[in-house]
Design goal:
single chain; 436 residues; mainly beta; 6-stranded mixed beta sheet; 31 strands; globular
Length: 436
């Protein structure tokens, strides 16, 4: 989420009231929604709250990834970004295992490190042997950072293996880095034909997505090189013949953050926050196709400099019906028979939408759900920025798999301090809700 809007503020009031009404839902529940509303699932656990203020180290929960320990699935890990707070690693009880600080600013007037999104690469061949890696976009420095995963390493499972000479992803110099139109959304992909691993990275406040080839270098370090870059549209022709662009701050274009690649067919799904979900080839060749549009697609707006909000005009009715901007947190729920779902966080109404994974079915909409409070102490998810799903047994705690979602407004909270964290949901509940 990058900016407030009047429409989003109104949605937040409504959905906060709905969340409060659901406080009596028992833990680990799945319920049908009322008429016209999606089914409800509740979390089993939540991580400790993070506070995006000086006292909290400017830590702001954003995007998770789930690493499965094949030798001992019950000892798997959730690796998550905390923006200026760096990286956090949790066990399956949602307890902290390791905290890694974001790199400091290059100079006294430069932007500090800020970890935005995270994804995993399995078995990358390094100069020291194969390893699983956590890859994160460092928006503050416009770079990717790489962390080797060794579950039982003394001092913590993650070790920084980033090549110190790794280049900026989009910027030409430090002045451009400080403008913070830098590395933002992130998805990894390994081409099964060549075995080569890549990262797809979007650019903040721009429509660009770039494809980076991951390269091992001496000493077990990792760097990357740019293969190609693609720009999604910033303006759109509406059915009535008019041209439309979503409202934003002056100079700001509709950016992409949530991204995921289907490894079976090399398809990239990218959420352009105020537009919808795109489907395109992960090698960034070919023509992108818009799978679904947000409800607000086509709605004119005027940016108010005083309030720093967009004031929406009349809805011409050209938008979609299932997701509300911003569209965020794309993640892929795979099934052994080739079926599965693309899950998307519909941030504007605090729900999740599920689309058929199969291209032959044109990624048709399959349903949705909401992560609601389990109790007064364990709330649900609001304005979810990031999500990760793994459909594989994870020991006795999550024998049916795990869904991890960011919560942008943890409750009951701590006064006026911004409070975020991550919720852990039994994937079995989600699958049942989608099958209803």
């Amino acid at each position: 989420m990058t900016r407030p809007t009047t429409a989003r503020s109104l949605v937040l009031v409504v959905t906060t009231a709905l969340a409060a009404a659901a406080l009596a839902v028992p833990a680990q529940a799945h319920h049908r929604g009322s008429a016209g509303s999606p089914p409800v699932v509740t979390p089993r656990a939540e991580t400790p709250v993070l506070h995006d203020d000086d006292a909290g180290g400017n830590a702001d929960a954003d995007d998770p990834a789930i690493w499965r320990n094949a030798a001992a699935p019950g000892r798997s890990l959730v690796i998550a970004t905390a923006k200026e707070g760096g990286l956090r690693v949790y066990d399956l009880d949602a307890r902290p295992v390791q905290s890694i600080a974001a790199p400091p600013a290059a100079g006294p007037d430069d932007a500090p490190g800020r970890f935005n999104n995270v994804d995993l690469v399995q078995g990358l061949r390094l100069s020291t042997g194969r390893a699983d890696l956590a890859v994160t976009s460092d928006r503050g420095h416009d770079r990717l950072r790489f962390y080797r995963i060794d579950r039982d390493r003394p001092g913590g499972p993650l070790t920084d293996v980033t090549d110190p000479a790794a280049p900026a992803v989009f910027s030409r110099d430090q002045a451009e880095i400080n403008d913070q139109r830098t590395a933002y959304g992130l998805a990894t992909w390994t081409d099964p034909a060549s075995g080569t691993s890549f990262a797809l990275v979007s650019r903040r406040e721009r429509t660009s997505i770039t494809l980076l080839e991951l390269l091992p270098v001496a000493g077990g370090k990792v760097t990357y090189r740019t293969v190609r870059t693609l720009d999604l549209p910033a303006t759109f022709r509406l059915p009535d013949g008019t041209s439309w662009a979503p409202c934003g701050e002056p100079g700001e274009l509709p950016q992409v953050e949530g991204m995921v690649v289907d490894p079976a067919n090399g398809t990239l799904y990218a959420g352009q926050e105020d537009i919808g979900i795109w489907r395109l080839r992960a090698d960034l060749t070919g023509t992108p196709q818009l799978v679904d549009k947000v409800r607000e697609y086509g709605v004119p707006g005027v940016y108010d400099e005083e309030t720093e909000e967009c004031v929406p005009g009349a809805d011409p009715g050209f938008g979609g019906t299932r997701i509300s901007s911003d569209v965020e947190g794309l993640t892929l729920l795979t099934e052994s028979d080739g079926d599965g779902y693309l899950l998307a966080s519909s941030q504007g109404d605090n729900t999740f939408a599920a689309y058929d994974r199969e291209l032959a079915d044109h990624n048709e909409y399959e349903g949705g759900f909401r992560v609601a409070p389990a109790s007064a102490a364990l709330d649900g998810s609001e304005e979810c920025d990031g999500a990760a799903v793994l459909n594989a047994p994870l020991g006795s705690k999550y024998p049916h798999g795990l869904l991890v979602v960011q919560d942008g407004h943890d409750a009951p909270g701590d006064g006026d301090r911004p409070a975020t964290n991550f919720k852990f949901v039994d994937l079995g509940l989600v699958l049942t809700s989608l099958d209803d």
